[in-house]
Amino acid sequence: MRSTELVIHSVLAVAIVLTFYPFIFMVITSLKSNDQFSHHFWSVALPAHWENYGKAWGGISMYIVNSVKVSVISVAGVLLVSCMSAYAFARHRFPGDNLLFYSIISLMMVPGVLTLISSFMWMKEFPFVGGNNWVGEGGSGFLNSHVALIFPYIAGGQVFAILILRSFIGGLPEDIFEAARLDGANEMTILMRVVVPLSKPILSAIAVMNLLSVWNDYVWPLIIISDDAKRTLPIGLAFFQGVHGTTYGPLMAGYTLASLPLLTLFFFAMRPFVSGLTSGAIKV
Amino acid sequence: MAESGVNLIKLLVVGLVITVTVPLAAAELIFHLKSEKVQYIYRVLFIIPMIVPGVVTLLIWGFIYDYNSGLLNQILRLLGLERAPQAWLGDPRFALYSLMFVGFPWVGGFALLIYTAGLQGISTDVLDSCKLDGATGLRRIWSVDIPLVMAQIKLMIVLGVIGGIQGFQTQLLLTDGGPGYSTMAPGLVLYRNSMLYDRMGYACAIGVVLFIIILFVTYINMRYLRSSTEFETK
Fold first, then answer.
1. Cβ(A254)–Cβ(A236) under 8 Å?
2. Closest CA to A236 of B188, B194, B53, B183
3. Which of A165, A174, A238, B182 has the fewest Cβ atoms nearer than 10 Å?
4. B70 vs chain A: nearest CA distance in angstroms?
5. Is the ipTM of this complex over 0.85?
C-alpha cells in the first residue's frame, strides 16, 4: 500500500515539474541580461537584473490598466444584469416570461465563431455613434473603443449567468420572500438584501468565470482595437513580444507581470476560482 | 480551405485522445491518494497553470519552439544531438505536430477538474462494496471508476469538439496558419477572409457551416449521449 502511494507521488511530481518548468524558466530568464541568457542558459545567473521588470512595466502597464478597466466593468455589468433578470424570471410571472427566458437561453447554442463577423459589423455600424448616421453608415461606430468590448462581454456573459442564477433563486424557499414583503420591503430591497446575500457563492463563481474569459480574450479585442493605447493585455502582450522579440529578459519579465494579477487574486479567493472554473467549463 | 479541414480533423482527434487519457489518469492518481489534504494540494497545483493567461502560455510555447534559443532545441543540443534542432514552427513537416504538442504534459485544465468532480461523486457505498469484492487498483478503475465518470468523459469530448472546431487562437499567435497552409484552421480562414481580405460573404458562409457542424454535435450529444450513465452502472 505504501509503495503504491510512493509511485503515485513520483508520477504526479514528474507531471508537476514538467507542467511548471516553462513558467519557472520564464521567471528565471526574466532576471537575466541578454549576455547572461546566452552564456548561462540553464542556470540562475547573478547579478539579477531587476531593471528588466522596470522596462517590462513601462511596456505593458498601460495594457494591464486597460484590461483591469474592461474586465471590472464587464464583470460588474454581467452581475447586475443577470441578478435583476434572473430574479424576475425566477420569482415573477409576466406576459411572455417563458418566451423571453427561452430566447435568452437559446443563445447558448450559438457559437462565437458564427457571431464574430455580425457582432463586428454591429459595432462598426452602430447608429449615431462615431460619425455614423441613423442607418449606421459614414463612420466607424464603436470600433476602437472599450465600449465595443464591454457591451458584447456583458451581453455574452449574462446568458449562462441568468440560467444558473434563475434555477438557484427559484429554489429559495418562498417563505423568505413573503416575510420580506410583509415587512414592507419593495422589490429592489428584496433583491439587494435577500437575493444577493443568499446567492453570494454563485455570484462569485459567475464573476470568476467571466473575469477569466474577459481577461484572456484575444480574438475580439484584436479585431476591435487598433490604437496601441487602448489595447488590452492579451493583444498588447503579443505586440510587446513583437517589439522585444530577442531581448528575452524584459520579454519574460513582461510575461511574468502579465500573469501576476490573476494569480494574486487566485490565492486570495481559491474557492470561487475553483467553482468558477468548473462551472465555466460546462458552459457550451 | 480543404487543407484546413484536414488539419482540423487531425488536431481534433489528437486533442480528444489527450483529453480523455492524461487528465483522467491524473485525476485517478490524485483520487487514489489517502490524505484529502494532499489531494487538495495536488489539485491546486494543477489549477495554477490555468490561471496564467492563455496568451502568456502560448507565447512561452512559441519561445520553446524557437530555433536559436528555444528550450526544445537547447535540450537537444545539451544531449549532443547537434543535427536534431529544427525550426519546429517554421517547417511544414513539423508545424502541425508542434501545435499538438503545445501544453505538454496536458495534465492541468478543465478536464482534471471535471474528472475529479466526477470521481468525487461516486458514492462511498460503491467503493466499499468494491473493497469487499476484492476489486482494487486497475480492476476497480476499469470496471467501476471509468463507467461512472463516463458522463464527464463524454462532456469533455463534446466540449472539445465544439471548442476545437472554432479555435484558431493558437495558430493566430504561433504560426498564422503557415508555413504555407500547413497549420491553417477553418476559424483562421474565416478570420482572415473577413478581417484582412474584406470577403465578408465568404467568411460568413464558413461561419454558418461551422455552426451547422457544431449544432449537429450538440444534437447528437443531447439525443444519444446524455443520461447514459444510469444504464452503464447496472
1. no
2. B53
3. A174
4. 10
5. yes
Q: Which residue among B45, B46, B64 sits closest to A22, beta carbon to beta carbon?
A: B64
Nearest C-alpha in A relative to B113: A278
pTM of the predicted model over 0.90: no
- Let me know if B201 is exposed, middle or buried by CB neighbors in 10 A (0-12, 13-18, 19+): exposed
pLDDT score recorded for residue A222: 92
Q: Which CATH superfamily is domain A22-282 in?
A: MetI-like (1.10.3720.10)
Q: Any residues with CB less than 8 A from the CB of A254 and at least 6 apart, and which?
A: A56, A59, A60, A237, A240, A241, A244
* Nearest CA distance, A20 vs chain B (angstrom): 8
With cell 467568411, the residue in question is B203
| End-to-end Cα spacing for chain B | 46
CATH for B105 = 1.10.3720.10
Biggest alpha carbon distance in chain A? 76
Range of the domain at B183: 2-233
Task: Name the domain count of chain B.
Answer: 1
Arithmetic mean of pLDDT over chain A: 88
Which residues make Cβ contacts (< 8 Å) with residue B142, sequence separation at least 6?
A: none
What is the rounded average pLDDT of the residues B35-39?
86
Query: What counts of helices (H) and strands (E) characterise chain B?
Result: 14, 0
User: Residues 43..72 of B with a Cβ closer than 8 Å to A: which?
Assistant: 43-57, 59-64, 69, 71
Rg (alpha carbons) of chain B, rounded to whole number = 21
